[in-house]
Amino acid sequence: MRSYLLRRILVFIPTLLVISLISFVILINSPGDPVERMMQAGGTGEFIPAPLLEKQRAEIRHRLGLDLPVFYFNIQSAGNDGISKYLPSVSFNYHNQFHRWLFGDGINTLGIIRGDFGTSYQTQQPVSKLIADRIGWSLFFTLTSIFFAYIISIPIGIKSAAGRNGRFDRISSTVLFILYSLPLFWVATLLLMTFANPDVLYIFPASGVKPVFGYPEESGFFRRILISLPHLVLPTICYTYSSLTFLSRLMRNSMLEILGSDYIRTARAKGLSEKRILWVHALKNSLFPIITVFAHVFPAMIGGSVIIESIFSIPGMGNAIYQSITTQDYPVLIAVFSITGLLTAVGYLISDIIYAWVDPRISFSK
Amino acid sequence: MLKEKPVKKNNRFLKRFAHRRTVRLAAYFLLLIAVVASFANVLSNEKPLYVKYKGEHLFPALSLNGFADIVNNDSTNPQRLVYANVNWRELKKEKVIWCPIVFSPGKSDWINSPFKSPNDFQTYSENGKTSEANFRNRHWLGTTKTGADVLSGIIHGTRVSLTIGICSMIIAGLTGILLGAMAGFFGDHRIRISKSGFITGIILGLPLAWFYGVSVPLRYFGQMENTSFLSILAVLLFAVLLIAICLFITFFLGRLTGRFFKMSGQTFLHVDQFISRGIEIFNSIPRIVLIITLSAIARPSVINLVLIIGLTSWTDIARLVRAEMLKVRSAEYILSAEASGIKTIRQVYRHALPNVVIPAITAITLGIASAILTESALSFLGIGVPADVVTWGSLLNEGRQNFSAWWLVVFPGLAIFCTVTAFNIAGDALSESIDTTKR
Question: CA A288 to CA A238: how far, in whole Å?
């Protein structure tokens, strides 16, 4: 167990490294020149003579660290002409863009390891502040809908496993199969079209998470939840149903496996009632896979959140991704990507540890 | 005398595959959309199939070069007819055969804009007269804001979706089968190589391979004038060749020096460990967010989207192939192949690979469904494919702007849903007909 934990954590470190490397490669390859973006944003519209402009540009380049080499190892051509163009030269640089991006330079930036993702091109505010404002709603929706998905899918899975190939099993598997094939954004648009459309049914508001003019003054926490409730119904439905099929199928399969095992046969031979076997003896062991799969549901929900949040205009991380794409605000995009990567990796780590904890038979590479 | 029953007929793969009505329906539907996608240009096009103009027989919808030179009787200069710029309705033509649907995707039809529903009053104009649209000239599934025909958008969207789904899964399938088969067949203790060669290969060969295989081709790529598909492929192949040469040369140099200094130790190449951990690390990155991020910074084009989706969704296939390969490798026929002295390469591609490819095809079929979903989600958000390419997702996106235009939401959505369901059903049925335990 201890060696498993150790080795699992040892895999976790390269995972983080790879995520940061991918983010960095995406960042330096993003179109547009960050210096120009900064100049435009900071410009006052006055006429600046060309030499001064060039100096300003160089200053910003230096401040952003763009004059540094890209990575620790730099493999480049030995020269610019003749045969030396095709000969490599390797250099090692401690001061480079990746190191600066990761750990900061100690003066202007703190590095992503301390939560500094730079400044947004659009709002000129720190990206970390923007993310901190937005992560709450995403986590709220993700966690509530995972909760609902579990509550709905566990009974469905148990019931269809208990009556295998029976009527309930067949109907539920067909319905879930159809749900699985329905595109998320189509369902969301259809729901909006049906339940938030003044021409058809106007039960739920179409966008946002709170009234347009904000909450009434002096409304307490619970009152605010009550006011927000109609806004939350449709997004929660969309969030929930996308993981429903996966979870109930998993529950059904793990229940079937448990029901075929020896100790259930013993319980039956003892003369216990079928109900007791199902809900007491089998349930406990069949829950392990579905609980540890939590980490796999999470990244799918983050991915779906881009679509759902942009359709329902929820001020969350997914909407931040969407807006940063439309406004070409790449620091925000990279920050959200790194954070979701980190959250997912941590989720996988936790779920693997829980799995090893509840099922001691598990070993690392088998 | 006991006679064996002829079981061969009942055991036929196709029969097992299509024994249910839903599966047959799904297969027919897939065939239908394959036909629609292949003949999209002929099925729905504002250019006529056949036109007789000034005595010349023209086939505008089928033409590849997109223009025709009409030789006039009275003047010496031939008149060039560029098909894309011709207003075919108003052209003085002697004979004409239209396509089944007389609209092109994305082409605005201002007299039927904005948002004409399928049962609205629709008009059309031909030869200078405007009248109520007849059977042929109706927009059967309505129009968009600019008056573009929805049905023709759906027909041409089929082509985009199928192209992206199938091409990306070919890339993902090749990568996944290659890596999974390597991990499963060679394992951790099957390849032994010289230790000194291995170490020099890592320390010296990898930087060299990076330089000659990545940096130099990329620089060459930047200088290239026309980037056609073939030239990209040629540069890519050349780069792979260079990488292989670099690694081989350094490996053999290291081995020779090792021999020279009497260090002939050998080490196992942990292929399985390396690939499995790689897959684990790759799986830890949220796939959809990665795809969205990559397509946001890449230039919007179908090829880029194919590459992005293909290169991010091979892990499931690789894991499946690895697990199957582990089973196959311990089978007796591989053992007997090994015992009879067959080369390893031949063992892999002649004996082991055919037995793991069919399970991989299951995963690929399911992968096509998810790739189509991803593509339409991306074009729904307005990223991925160029703005002028009409896809199912982009039609849905237009429907999102105006909820009273239900036909813009319902029909493209149905197209996505049916296609995805058909691929899912086919994938499930394939896996059932392969899996002997489920029968």
Answer: 26
> What type of residue is A362?
I
- What's the pLDDT score for residue A52? 81
At A34-86, the pLDDT tens digits run 777 777 766 566 667 778 878 888 887 887 777 777 778 777 777 777 777 77
* Token pair listed for A358: 């509840």
Retrieve residue A38's tokens. Answer: 């900064």
C-alpha Rg value of chain B to the nearest Å: 28
CB atoms inside a 10 Å sphere around CB A312: 26
> What residues of B are in contact with residue A334 (Cβ under 8 Å)?
293
Rg (CA), chain A: 27
What superfamily does domain B19-42+158-191+271-439 belong to in CATH?
MetI-like (1.10.3720.10)
Residue to test with chain B: of A19, A84, A176, A189, most B Cβ within 10 A? A189
Domains and CATH numbers, chain A: 127-358 (1.10.3720.10)
Taking every pair of C-alpha atoms in chain B, what is the biggest distance, in angstroms?
A: 94
What does pTM read for this prediction? 0.86
Cα–Cα distance list, A64 to A68, A218, A356, B219, B300 (Å): 9, 45, 45, 25, 28
Q: Look at B285 and A334 and tell me if their CB atoms are within 8 Å.
A: no
CB of A137 closer than 8 Å to CB of A209: yes
Q: Are B96 and B50 in contact (CB under 8 A)?
A: yes
Inter-chain touch B280–A15, beta carbons under 8 Å:
yes
Query: A-contacting residues of B 296-315, CB under 8 Å?
Result: 296-297, 299
Range of A57-61, B2-6, B168-172 with top mean pLDDT: B168-172
Per the DSSP assignment, residues forming a β-bridge with A360 are none
Taking CB atoms and an 8 Å limit, are A178 and B421 in contact across chains?
Answer: yes
Burial of A274 (0-12, 13-18, 19+ CB in 10 A): exposed
Q: Tokens 């499995």 appear where? A: B276
Q: For residues A93 and A302, what is the distance between their CA atoms, to the nearest angstrom? A: 37
User: Whole-angstrom Cα distance, residue A244 to residue A148?
Assistant: 9
Q: Which helix (H) or strand (E) holds A88?
A: strand A88-92
Q: Do B166 and B174 form a contact (C-beta atoms < 8 A)? A: no
CA distance A113 to B145: 47
Residue carrying structure tokens 């003054």: A217
**pLDDT higher than 90, residue B173:** yes
The span from the CA of A241 to the CA of B327, in Å, is 36
Three-class secondary structure of residue B180 per DSSP? helix
Amino acid in the structure at residue B367: G
Query: Six-digit token pair at A42?
Result: 């900071």
